[in-house]
Amino acid sequence: MLNYKEYIYAVYQERSFSKAAQKLYVSQPWLSSVVKKVEQEIKTPIFDRSTNPISLTAAGQYYIQQVKQVMNIEEEMRRHFAQLSSQETQLHIGSSMFFCTYVLPRLFQEFREENPQITLTLTEGGGNSMTEKLLNHKLDFFLEAEPLQKNEKIQSVAWCMEEIVLAVPARFSINKQLSQYCYSFDELLKRNEPGKKKPAVPLESFRDEPFLLLQPGNDSYQRSMQLCEHAGFTPKVSVFLTQMMTAFYLVCEGQGVSFLRSTIPEYVTPTESVVFYQLDNPIATRAIYLSSLLQHANPVQQKLLDFMWNHSLLKPTTGALGSPATEDLKR
Fold first, then answer.
1. Do 169 and 267 fall within a single domain?
2. Which residues of the chain have pLDDT under 50?
3. What are the Cα distances from residue 176, in Å, to 239, 252, 254, 279?
4. Parallel/antiparallel/unpaired status of strands 285-293 and 141-144
5. 179 and 209, same structural domain?
């Protein structure tokens, strides 16, 4: 009953026997006879020919659902065996500029040493473009704070957690009033050592300061606005930006204050031109998501998956594909 599935699927897509026949380069009478043959085999109609355009019967809907699953499995098998036969050893990872420039090259250094035969390609981008590239098999994985758009073919799983802190130009006079909360560059890096922790700053203290925020529509902007709202004020935004690293350097130049990921000081040259404050709000902690296609990983992809989960700051228990089995980590 699946021998002619591609022909029936084409009729379903085109909603027309004549259009499907043209698409498949076959005659319409032959295509009609093929569909009829399958309908006789399963002893029920697949298409309701009384509607215009033609539509699926209840049995036809079930048939197409199963055909989609079979076609997805066949496509996965073709890609898997094509990779094995060609010994393809390239992996494509998408992420933001910060991760592609600072985090991933350092993280993958060990992976490359252990797997010199595998070439890693890093692609900068945002959620919408990465979703399309994942679905078109132009990316193997995507890593970022914003989980990708919901899609039945994609899974997004929390890979690690990161803290958001407030970065302030060191020359701003308000720092003198808040010295008990203030971290220097070096102090922030050592804040988790015994006796180094300082209390969280009252964010409302910065209500009159100029803010540098990322543009609306991303996770950082939404969290920034929520943090200020919870502190009882609306931030006075002097500049909207597209990259968090640009915000960091503008803070260093004294242009304004900004909400930044606390990991930035780990990857840039220490400077005395900026100070940091921790925030007492759950919104200031967020997950970094690893997104991939919801299908069985090929051997090369599995190597990177295993490496990523072994280096996850969450240290979760693992399930299928080497990804966390904890359901509430998925979006």
1. yes
2. 315-331
3. 25, 17, 16, 18
4. antiparallel
5. yes
